[in-house]
Amino acid sequence: MTWSILARDEQGQFGMAIASRFFAVGSLCVHSRRGVGALSTQALMNPLYGPAGLDLLSQGLNPAGVIATLIAGDEGREQRQVHILPHTGAAAAHTGTECIDWCGHLSREGLSVAGNMLAGPEVLEATADTYLSMQGHPMAERLLAAMEAGEAAGGDKRGKQAAALKIQHHEDYLQLDLRVDDHPDPLAELRRLYEVSLERFQPFLTCLPGRGRPSGITQRAEIEATIETFHAKRAQK
After folding, report:
1. Average pLDDT, the chain
2. Residue 1: pLDDT above 70?
3. Complete edge-to-edge strand list for the sheet that includes strand 30-33
């Protein structure tokens, strides 16, 4: 019912994007944790995989071992699809034998893409190839373009309904968390929301309390100056 992309960069940032002909697909499928990794549970999703998988990953178990542990006690494992991208090292995935075609997974350095009920393998290939072709661009923009390419290649063979984009960087909270739960063109709406987030939301988040600055920026003039600097830097690119 879904395809998703998990990505990481050299700074330890994780990005996740997902789309499906299923309501609110971003609510229970994709999970991440700072310094640990990212995971997506899909097909007949098991939302318990998210917290449990990231706990196991944080304890030092490799992604293949995490997946083996998650599915071992799950009677529905042959209807599940799950893929994991760790903070370092290679991705791993499981696509159960009862997942609906086309279904499968591919991985590259710092990248994992998986899907089921798709038009064909070209959906994943277009998603991965587009992401990798956009080095130097912000991760969120690479993910959006990658998902748009996957949709252009056929996407979910049932149609469109929901999409989500999430970025996890150096804080325990998400740097960006955008969801389109029900829309005739969810990826286009997701891109629109991303553009709106650039106006004030994204630069404002850099002023919030964080691990290196427990109180954040509290002076309104300094917040406004931070937002202005953010836009000045974007204008120079």
Report:
1. 96
2. no
3. 30-33, 37-43, 80-86, 92-95
Q: Tokens 């997942």 map to which residue?
A: 99
pTM above 0.90, yes or no: yes
Confidence band of 207 (pLDDT split at 50, 70, 90):
very high
Q: d(Cα 107, Cα 105) in Å, to the nearest integer?
A: 7
Asked if residue 144 lies in contact with residue 129, where contact means CB atoms within 8 angstroms, the answer is no
Token pair 């993910």 is found at 143
SS3 16: strand
Q: Given phi > 0 = left and psi -120 to 50 = alpha, else beta, which region is 60?
A: left
Helix (H, G, I), strand (E, B) or coil at 63: helix
d(CA 214, CA 222): 16
Distances from the Cα of 23 to the Cαs of 45, 48, 179, in angstroms?
13, 19, 11
